[in-house]
């Protein structure tokens, strides 16, 4: 034993292995409905299912739960596949619930013939009125005792397109007095005259989730069908439907439930995320403000960061709220190891180095990543005029301000020690230029006594004449409230943070000219940034993935 602790789902699997299952019986699936893009909540389910696959060397299917043609699209299927792959997982077989429509139909006929399903021809309001309450039994439909012949005729008519939507449904004949409301003759099929993204117009009856999911698990021989807690009450129905078809020679799938994961300051529901896209609150599903996998990718998150986050929070039996700062922590932790360090100034003020020779420039060596020696070094240009951050200069400041102030010294990262001598202001009193002197013997790495001299602050900078201008998109939380979709009297849309995106122009060191879309870097002292797909030859666009705690520049 490695001493690692198992989660409760792994304990269930381990127990099954002790009680007769063999490892080769194990098979899992990740079952998204292609009605939107995957979000950070799905990452938990993906890591759980594929993690079990890796642990037991068992196959994991990617199952599209595509039973509702009104909301589903091929584009969502494509996006889901891209995201699961990007997260680093490989599925065994790509399956669709719609692959099983014919088998499900045949099994439904079998149920009708056995007197276990019937066609109901009431309106949905009438059926709802007969459902009863959790405390009172429901009442039987007047169609509940239709003959098998009549049921077969009507059900075939439904399938053959003879009826309008809503005219008839097929229901399982279970128990209108069951303690479990879901067992009160649940609907198995409805008429929908809608083309399906895969089966096109082959079918105009579509099976309901409960009838489809367990049977699909059975067809695929999934041993453990893991879903979120809202399906706990469905388990009895899942089992009832399986009882109708299972063959004792085969694996009988088990549904087990775990808690949905919620992230603070956002919503994790495809329906709600779709609303943000449709109402143009964001630019699309992959907007970096979105908690979607594609939004996080575009924002600069790595698959490792998302997987580490999901593994750290693990799975739970109860719902709770995970603070988004934990996700950000994992982004920083991984990006710190892999992101090359570069210099960029987001809010520039010009520094003129008065004793630096006019028209001269020099190229200084600087390390690409202090966390990774193999990342090597690069050259950055230095000249008489540079930009530093406006916030890094104050005319006067107390002793705790380890940046630049009049009469004070700082080191320019990988360059020289400078001293602020004076500054100029515009008519409104804004500082427009700082005049500094530099110590020519203090060049970093030159080995001189002056180069080793300790000064309190180190600032990042870029040479004015070499700097490249870029658009930088700074992100904040999309919702001002921690838990925007849990308020009784308010809608989550009421909590949209209008300042979640700020677009600025920044000045970058010239080495960044050769970055490509998706490249991730650390702008020193500022945070981690990623090249956005909106970038062009003419203009680079960067997204701020996550800020940085000031480490070397205090
Ligand atoms: P949504 O409300 O976002 O559409 P869903 O559960 O309907 O969520 P599915 O496409 O059915 O979305 O989800 C695929 C799998 O991912 C399911 O097993 C589901 O239970 C799981 N899942 C979805 N959201 C979360 C979440 N927030 N935390 C953990 N697992 C989740
Ligand atoms: Mg679902
Ligand atoms: Mg859903």
TrEMBL record:
<dbReference type="Pfam" id="PF20974">
    <property type="entry name" value="tRNA-synt_1c_C2"/>
</dbReference>
<dbReference type="InterPro" id="IPR049437">
    <property type="entry name" value="tRNA-synt_1c_C2"/>
</dbReference>
<dbReference type="Pfam" id="PF03950">
    <property type="entry name" value="tRNA-synt_1c_C"/>
</dbReference>
<keyword id="KW-0067">ATP-binding</keyword>
<dbReference type="InterPro" id="IPR020059">
    <property type="entry name" value="Glu/Gln-tRNA-synth_Ib_codon-bd"/>
</dbReference>
<dbReference type="GO" id="GO:0006425">
    <property type="term" value="P:glutaminyl-tRNA aminoacylation"/>
</dbReference>
<dbReference type="GO" id="GO:0004819">
    <property type="term" value="F:glutamine-tRNA ligase activity"/>
</dbReference>
<feature type="region of interest" description="Disordered">
    <location>
        <begin position="123"/>
        <end position="146"/>
    </location>
</feature>
<dbReference type="InterPro" id="IPR011035">
    <property type="entry name" value="Ribosomal_bL25/Gln-tRNA_synth"/>
</dbReference>
<dbReference type="GO" id="GO:0005829">
    <property type="term" value="C:cytosol"/>
</dbReference>
<dbReference type="InterPro" id="IPR020056">
    <property type="entry name" value="Rbsml_bL25/Gln-tRNA_synth_N"/>
</dbReference>
<feature type="domain" description="Glutamyl/glutaminyl-tRNA synthetase class Ib anti-codon binding">
    <location>
        <begin position="339"/>
        <end position="439"/>
    </location>
</feature>
<feature type="domain" description="tRNA synthetases class I (E and Q) anti-codon binding">
    <location>
        <begin position="458"/>
        <end position="532"/>
    </location>
</feature>
<dbReference type="Pfam" id="PF00749">
    <property type="entry name" value="tRNA-synt_1c"/>
</dbReference>
<dbReference type="GO" id="GO:0005524">
    <property type="term" value="F:ATP binding"/>
</dbReference>
<dbReference type="InterPro" id="IPR014729">
    <property type="entry name" value="Rossmann-like_a/b/a_fold"/>
</dbReference>
<keyword id="KW-0648">Protein biosynthesis</keyword>
<keyword id="KW-0963">Cytoplasm</keyword>
<feature type="domain" description="Glutamyl/glutaminyl-tRNA synthetase class Ib catalytic">
    <location>
        <begin position="26"/>
        <end position="336"/>
    </location>
</feature>
<dbReference type="InterPro" id="IPR050132">
    <property type="entry name" value="Gln/Glu-tRNA_Ligase"/>
</dbReference>
<comment type="similarity">
    <text>Belongs to the class-I aminoacyl-tRNA synthetase family.</text>
</comment>
<keyword id="KW-0436">Ligase</keyword>
<dbReference type="InterPro" id="IPR004514">
    <property type="entry name" value="Gln-tRNA-synth"/>
</dbReference>
<protein>
    <recommendedName>
        <fullName>Glutamine--tRNA ligase</fullName>
        <ecNumber>6.1.1.18</ecNumber>
    </recommendedName>
</protein>
<dbReference type="InterPro" id="IPR001412">
    <property type="entry name" value="aa-tRNA-synth_I_CS"/>
</dbReference>
<keyword id="KW-0547">Nucleotide-binding</keyword>
<dbReference type="InterPro" id="IPR020058">
    <property type="entry name" value="Glu/Gln-tRNA-synth_Ib_cat-dom"/>
</dbReference>
<keyword id="KW-0030">Aminoacyl-tRNA synthetase</keyword>
